[in-house]
Sequence to fold (96 residues):
Amino acid sequence: MAFTKANLWPVNGADGNTFWYYKTADAPATVDTAGYFTNEAVGMLRVADLLFVVQVDDPAAPASVTDVSLHAVLSNDGATVDLSDDLLAATVADTD
Fold:
């Protein structure tokens, strides 16, 4: 799956930086690959912004969450956005 701008929302901003929520079927390792966020996001994401990524089975109608991760924007040169690796790995489980 590729980046989908409609699934990226700003949650809050402080000191010129923004906290983002992104819903996708892609794994965190895919999302944090340099260039994953296309030109549509280059004008939105800034260095030091944080992204909370929720991996779901189907972003259009999610029935289950499979993973959550937190990433920082490390660079944005106007053409390519690069995120950090997962800062907080958290696999979703329901053991009851």
In short: The beta strands are 8-14, 17-24, 50-56, 65-76, 81-83, 90-91.
